């Protein structure tokens, strides 16, 4: 389906849930949508206000202590101060008996810190959970992998792709923001705790390097220390098979903490291993990158994230053209849609400026209160999964007249009935940090799918509109056709999911962040039985699809069938150029449609939205 933070797309079988929309944003899901990350700024502003009041209180208290100190010090600096003076003698005795006690046992300091703690406890329920830290850290690792980003560069706030001796700047943020030693340690520790030493080692190495450079400095907010980083890095190297590095780091640890008996035992163990196997001294462990998504097409997918693949250029293929489209609809005669043919097999078309800035903003506003973590089908259940990072909401056309107008526009362009029960409700998706959706089918591949229980028939087409753009990252990739289409703001597009034997699998490339809206017409979108059980109805439906002007005249080809995955879609988008802004795209034919959209804490893009409808 769509891009990603671009990495998203979900199973559409449920209508809007009833209840308070404020309950839509659960703790532990902040990282999965950039709009949730943006909302996290509000509680931090409240915390800043609390800390400001605390600091002002402490500054007043310290000014008063400084006054007392200067007063007493001035008496001691005068060596000629006569203690025989009854007044001085009295004040000396009084100070020592009560004034100093009042200073030392003053409640002002504890009252200030108590007010700060009470304020924090009131805000705490609105703060991200530890699961968000883990999710955000994994997103950084995903960006690191997909775009071949250098960890040292990321720590400095620089997004650079390093391939051999070639270094390419992928993204230049408006404000350079570097990571601290503790930040790098936390990312490395998330990988360490998962047993992922491929990612843990470079992040922990960067943490050790930064901690060494600031050793002796005390930062209140830090959770880790140089000793913690050395401890984790040493064991990570040991687990990776590099005993020599593990020994060296463990010995360095003992320089700072010589009484640590556990580390002393580890040193003896490593020395014994090296004595028994001298070759270990010079052996360098080759750490294999874990294939977390278990994708056979991972290399192809990531290559398409980084480039457009074999996407043809218009002047090279004359049959790729631009035109104005009305589909013989009176609705579009006075305002035809700008059409751009992007690819022939599979057939991919972009319809430009399909929605306006005002409409896109309104749709995002309608959906935002209802956003919940995107899920995929797992048997008869729907579950959040690591290979789909986004939040989504379902919108009925009764929510706002704008949605009714949008449905009319889509129907006029495609010739399809996009009103329920012939199509599902509009689904609005917002991708999060490193958001993506791995290869998937939009249509149901199992007879136990909820789509069949609802007697709606299977999906035959997906319509998708990009509601925002990205600064870097994100695309829709067809891995078997070896090309990708960058995200283009306000463009409208679609995918023919399956016609008889045809099927399209797609992937959302890792983006930084974005919005999309989509919809799914069901197989009964004509005035036929929605179960489509009658073979004649299916043949008729296929014939009618072939006659629609928006489908390609190119022969529909079945792609190499990839390994089936749960749910309908997943993925996001990488950086790339787009033909123009405000477009829709349609696709038909074989090819794996892949998309990933990675957003490193808004590192690589703005919040990205898209809207989809399937049927």
Automatic annotation (TrEMBL):
GO molecular function, one term: procollagen-proline 4-dioxygenase activity
First and last residue of the signal peptide: 1-25
Pfam families in UniProt: P4Ha_N, TPR_P4H
InterPro entries: P4H_N, P4HA-like, Pro_4_hyd_alph, TPR-like_helical_dom_sf, TPR_P4H
Class of this enzyme: oxidoreductase
Domain Prolyl 4-hydroxylase alpha subunit: 346-509
Enzyme Commission code(s) on record: 1.14.11.2
Cofactor(s) essential for the protein: L-ascorbate; Fe(2+)
Record Gene3D superfamilies: 6.10.140.1460, q2cbj1_9rhob like domain, Tetratricopeptide repeat domain
Catalytic activity: L-prolyl-[collagen] + 2-oxoglutarate + O2 = trans-4-hydroxy-L-prolyl-[collagen] + succinate + CO2
Main location: endoplasmic reticulum
Keywords: Dioxygenase, Endoplasmic reticulum, Glycoprotein, Iron, Metal-binding, Oxidoreductase, Signal, TPR repeat, Vitamin C
Cellular compartments annotated: Endoplasmic reticulum lumen
Gene Ontology CC terms, in alphabetical order: endoplasmic reticulum lumen
Job description of the protein: Catalyzes the post-translational formation of 4-hydroxyproline in -Xaa-Pro-Gly- sequences in collagens and other proteins.
Subunit structure: Heterotetramer of two alpha-3 chains and two beta chains (the beta chain is the multi-functional PDI).
Family affiliation: Belongs to the P4HA family.
Protein name: Prolyl 4-hydroxylase subunit alpha-3
Source lineage: Eukaryota, Metazoa, Chordata, Craniata, Vertebrata
């Amino acid at each position: 389906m769509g891009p990603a933070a671009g990495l998203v797309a979900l199973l559409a079988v449920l209508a809007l849930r009833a209840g308070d929309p404020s309950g839509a944003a659960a703790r532990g899901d902040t990282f999965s949508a950039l709009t949730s990350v943006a909302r996290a700024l509000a509680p931090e502003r409240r915390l800043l206000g609390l800390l400001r009041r605390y600091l002002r209180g402490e500054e007043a208290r310290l000014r008063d202590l400084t006054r007392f100190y200067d007063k007493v010090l001035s008496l001691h600096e005068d060596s000629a101060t006569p203690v025989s003076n009854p007044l001085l003698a009295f004040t000396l005795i009084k100070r020592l008996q009560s004034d100093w006690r009042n200073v030392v046992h003053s409640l002002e300091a504890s009252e200030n810190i108590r007010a700060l703690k009470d304020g924090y406890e009131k805000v705490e329920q609105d703060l991200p959970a530890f699961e968000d830290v883990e999710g955000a850290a994994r997103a950084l690792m995903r960006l690191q992998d997909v775009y071949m980003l250098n960890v040292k560069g990321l720590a400095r706030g620089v997004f650079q792709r390093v391939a051999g001796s070639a270094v390419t700047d992928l993204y230049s943020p408006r404000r350079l923001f570097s990571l601290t030693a503790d930040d790098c340690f936390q990312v490395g520790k998330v990988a360490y705790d998962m047993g992922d030493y491929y990612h843990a080692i470079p992040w922990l190495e960067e943490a050790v390097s930064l901690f060494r450079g600031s050793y002796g400095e005390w930062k209140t907010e830090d959770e880790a220390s140089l000793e913690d980083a050395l401890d984790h890095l040493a064991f990570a190297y040991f687990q990776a098979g590099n005993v020599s590095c593990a020994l060296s780091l463990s010995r360095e640890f003992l320089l700072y903490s010589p009484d640590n008996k556990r580390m002393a035992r580890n040193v003896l163990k490593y020395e014994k291993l090296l004595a028994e196997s001298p070759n270990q001294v010079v052996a360098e462990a080759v750490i294999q990158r874990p294939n977390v998504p278990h994708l056979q097409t991972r290399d192809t997918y990531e290559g398409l994230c980084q480039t457009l693949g074999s996407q043809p250029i218009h002047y090279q293929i004359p049959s790729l053209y631009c035109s104005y489209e009305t589909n013989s609809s009176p609705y579009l005669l006075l305002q035809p849609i700008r059409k751009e043919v992007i690819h022939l097999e599979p057939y991919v078309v972009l319809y430009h400026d399909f929605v306006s800035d005002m409409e896109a903003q309104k749709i995002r506003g309608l959906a935002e209160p209802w956003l919940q973590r995107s899920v995929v089908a797992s048997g008869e259940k729907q579950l959040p999964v690591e290979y789909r990072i986004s939040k989504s909401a379902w919108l009925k056309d009764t929510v706002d007249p704008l949605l009714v107008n949008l449905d009319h526009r889509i129907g006029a362009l495609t010739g399809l009935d996009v009103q329920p029960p012939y199509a599902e409700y509009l689904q609005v998706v917002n991708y999060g940090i490193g958001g993506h959706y791995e290869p998937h089918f939009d249509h149901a591949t199992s007879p136990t799918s909820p789509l069949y229980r609802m007697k709606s028939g299977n999906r035959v087409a997906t319509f998708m509109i990009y509601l925002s753009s990205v600064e870097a990252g994100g695309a829709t990739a067809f891995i078997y056709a070896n090309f990708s289409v960058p995200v283009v703001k306000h463009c409208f597009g679609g995918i023919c999911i399956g016609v008889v034997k045809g099927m399209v699998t797609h992937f959302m490339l890792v983006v930084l962040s974005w919005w999309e809206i989509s919809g799914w017409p069901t197989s009964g979108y004509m005035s036929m039985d929605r179960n489509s059980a009658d073979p004649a109805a299916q043949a008729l439906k296929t014939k009618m699809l072939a006659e629609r002007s928006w489908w390609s005249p190119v022969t529909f080809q079945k792609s190499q069938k990839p390994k089936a995955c749960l749910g309908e879609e997943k993925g996001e988008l990488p950086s790339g150029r787009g033909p123009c802004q405000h477009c829709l795209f349609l696709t038909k034919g074989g090819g794996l449609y892949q998309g990933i959209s990675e957003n490193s804490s808004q590192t690589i893009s703005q919040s990205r939205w898209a809207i989809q409808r399937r049927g």
